[in-house]
Design goal:
- The chain has 13 helices and 13 strands.
- With about 350 residues, it is α/β, with parallel strands linked by helices.
- The protein folds into 2 domains: about 200 residues, Transcription Regulator spoIIAA (2-Layer Sandwich), CATH 3.30.750.200; about 70 residues, Arc Repressor Mutant, subunit A (Orthogonal Bundle), CATH 1.10.10.920.
- A 7-stranded mixed β-sheet has the order 1-2-3-4-5-7-6. A 3-stranded antiparallel β-sheet has the order 8-9-10, with no helix packed on it. A 3-stranded antiparallel β-sheet has the order 11-13-12.
- Helix 6 links the parallel strand 4 and strand 5.
- Helix 1 packs parallel to helix 2 and helix 6 runs parallel beside helix 8.
């Protein structure tokens, strides 16, 4: 797999054209399985193939059960300068319900060990809305998360994905479905707690200390180009989107045989408008009218009036921003502004 990834990096050397690499993200699957030598080999190849910025943000995703003291110390010896840790919860009841491999003690310990090893740029994921998560538990989850002083927290509502154990349990009655009203209340608890601790709510699911935003995710929301390497990885060059074969064996075979290993979708003007609305409205910077071309600009201005009148959208100069009280409804608001051919 590492040989195939190295080959694909070289094969895609022209994809980003002259773009400077400001962020690198080891994500998807379990990238923490890589050892120090393997991480350095990949990064050295990226450095030799693309132009790097002065201080690129280099993130590695990991779960608490992967982050032993030895593993963290090893990672600290690589150019990795940011960890994104899938904590999900600091309570065993939640973790067992979510079928996580780590426990509450490991969730706490891995953050402390990472800080002791010199990782100051840390993000953790938290999940709200689970049937096991009472309001009191969620409040204590947040208090503990903010107590570490880490610069970034991503938090998502529990979703029941098809063909998962949780989906089967809910369908069979062995687990309760997500209570939307409860989830919305916990979302607002999250927003208020983050504000009280001085964090900026810069994207619907993301909170950061001032100027400590994730450069990598911010690039997605701002529509910048990106290149994904490896099975299932997605790429975007501003004109088209492509995604790699998800099956590992087929990906390896096609890479080794110099056969196509991805599919491509050319984006229409309508696609680009809809994607811009969807991503920009998720951020604190909102949707700028000068970034929308005709005929979509006229359509957008007409459709958004109702949301302004009911207080869901706030207009600030040339930007349209979802009101704080309506952020939980952002996906529905964005969908209402999408352009479809029969309108």
């Amino acid at each position: 797999m590492l040989d195939a990834i190295a080959k694909e990096i070289k094969m895609q050397s022209d994809y980003l054209e002259s773009e400077v690499i400001d962020t690198i993200y080891f994500g998807g699957g379990t990238p923490s399985i890589l050892d120090t030598e393997e991480i350095n080999t990949i990064l050295n190849l990226i450095r030799a193939t693309y132009e790097w910025g002065k201080q690129p943000e280099i993130t590695l995703e990991a779960n608490p059960d992967d982050l032993s003291a030895e593993k963290i110390d090893a990672l600290a010896k690589t150019p990795i300068n940011r960890l994104s840790i899938g904590i999900q919860s600091f309570f065993n009841e939640d973790l067992q319900f979510m079928n996580r491999a780590h426990n509450a003690e490991e969730a706490t310990q891995c953050i402390q060990l990472s800080q002791q090893a010199g990782f100051h740029d840390i993000s953790i994921d938290l999940i709200y809305g689970a049937p096991t998560t009472s309001h009191d538990m969620w409040k204590r989850n947040l208090e503990k998360a903010f107590s570490f002083g880490i610069p970034h927290i991503s938090s998502y509502c529990l979703t029941v994905e098809p063909q998962t154990a949780l989906h089967h349990f809910v369908k069979s009655g062995r687990a309760q479905p997500v209570d939307e009203a409860k989830a919305e209340e916990q979302f607002h608890m999250l927003v208020q707690s983050a504000k009280d601790h001085g964090y900026e709510h810069y994207e619907i699911s993301n909170f950061a200390q001032p100027q400590r935003y994730s450069k990598h995710n911010t690039a997605y929301w701002q529509g910048k180009k990106y290149l994904g390497i490896g099975p299932s990885a997605h790429s975007f060059n501003g004109i088209s989107r492509q995604w790699n074969i998800s099956n590992n064996a087929t990906y390896l075979k096609n890479i080794n045989d110099d056969q196509p290993h991805f599919e491509v979708e050319e984006l229409s003007d309508q696609d680009r408008y809809n994607e811009y609305v969807m991503t920009s409205l998720r951020t604190q910077w909102g949707c700028r009218i000068d970034s929308i071309s005709e005929p979509f600009r006229e359509y957008f201005l007409k459709r958004i009036q109702n949301h302004i009148q009911n207080g869901q959208i706030i207009k600030k100069e040339d930007a349209y921003i979802i009101a704080p009280s309506s952020r939980f409804l952002s996906d529905g608001i964005a969908a209402d502004l999408f352009y479809v051919n029969n309108q």
